[in-house]
Specification:
Elements: E1 12-15, H1 29-44, E2 49-53, E3 64-68, E4 72-80, E5 89-96, E6 104-108, E7 126-129, H2 132-142, H3 148-181, H4 188-199, H5 207-229, E8 234-241, E9 248-255, E10 266-271, H6 278-287, E11 295-296, E12 300-304, E13 307-311
Antiparallel strand pairs: 1-2, 2-4, 3-4, 4-5, 5-6, 6-7, 8-9, 8-13, 9-10, 11-12, 12-13
Length: 312
């Protein structure tokens, strides 16, 4: 496989008894090994779940075939916590078709980077081991929750495009309206003169031209208002329900310049409802009623079911 991607937990279909042997077909050694591997992983993460990404095919009751090569097949499950936003990683078994060769256990995670292979190699984000004990140690080393900074980075550039989209549309509207006044864009002196003429109460001889000028000045004013009022500060908020208390927890990371090509995120901490910034809390209420990916000017966007980006 290529560079590992952390998939949203909302896309997971769970295997209810992956660390038992209920789903392991008789005689399928690789499934039995994967089941035992999962059982060891569950000792490390007692509350974790195992699953696959939707949609589920007709064989959805058994772990997915991750890859088939000419000499082997790989069978795997994703590891995640239901109350989190993204999965932690993937575990599996590589079965060799040569009966004289033992199967390998593998772990895949964004924390694994075998730069020798390159990002598009199947080995870039995967580590193999013949011994289950070694594989379990690799799980402890590489399988982990995605911290707020990395969670924010997953949608940072897309949020940058959302944030800049409104201004871009208004600028294009200004250019279009201006081109309707003159065939090519001219200096701002023309805009100043037109504004003075309209404010004086002058009635244009051609009412269609007058309406075109009014639209042009209106678009310029709206664009200027947006540029004046909006902030480049954006907060990523990850919402999860604590398994221990049942209360909502809000992990916040913030950037001071969402318009930067190299967005820098700073962790701001984890809050409960009583300690969360009221401005963020109010905007989360609005975004919770929106569709995923629906940008709201001055408010933000719901990126995933439990991940929001809020503008300030």
């Amino acid at each position: 496989m290529a560079k590992f991607e952390n998939i949203p937990v909302a896309n997971m279909i769970e295997y209810p008894d992956v660390s038992g042997y209920q789903w392991a077909p008789v005689g399928m050694t690789h499934y039995l090994q994967l089941s035992r591997f999962a059982e060891e992983v569950q000792k490390i993460f007692p509350a974790c779940s195992f699953g696959k990404e939707v949609p589920v095919g007709p064989k959805g009751h058994v772990p997915r075939v991750r890859k088939r090569g000419w000499s082997y097949g790989e069978y795997s499950v994703y590891v995640y916590h239901k109350h989190k936003s993204l999965i932690m990683g993937e575990i599996g078994v590589r079965e060799y078709y040569d009966n004289d060769r033992e199967n390998d256990f593998f772990v895949s995670s964004q924390k694994i980077t075998h730069k020798t292979y390159g990002e598009y190699s199947e080995r870039y984000s995967t580590t193999l081991s013949r011994n289950m004990g070694t594989a379990v140690r690799n799980v402890k080393k590489y399988i982990m929750e995605v911290p707020p900074i990395e969670l924010a980075e997953t949608g940072g550039q897309e949020i940058r495009r959302h944030w800049g989209g409104s201004a871009k549309e208004l600028r294009e509207a200004v250019r279009a309206a201006r081109s309707a006044v003159v065939q090519t864009a001219t200096s701002d002196m023309l805009m100043m003169e037109l504004k003075a003429i309209v404010n004086s109460g002058y009635q244009f001889v051609d009412p269609i031209f007058g309406a075109t000028v009014d639209k042009f000045l209106s678009e310029v004013a709206e664009c200027a208002e947006l540029e004046r009022d909006r902030s480049q500060r954006v907060s990523m908020v990850s919402v999860e329900v604590s398994p221990q208390t049942g209360n909502s927890l809000f992990s916040v990371a913030r950037t001071e310049d969402i318009d930067s090509w190299a967005i820098e995120w700073e962790p701001k901490g984890t809050f409960v409802e009583d300690t969360l910034d009221p401005d963020i809390a109010g905007k989360l209420s609005v975004l919770s009623m929106c569709h995923e990916g629906q940008w709201v000017d001055g408010v933000g966007v719901k990126q995933l079911p439990t991940v929001f980006y809020v503008v300030h």
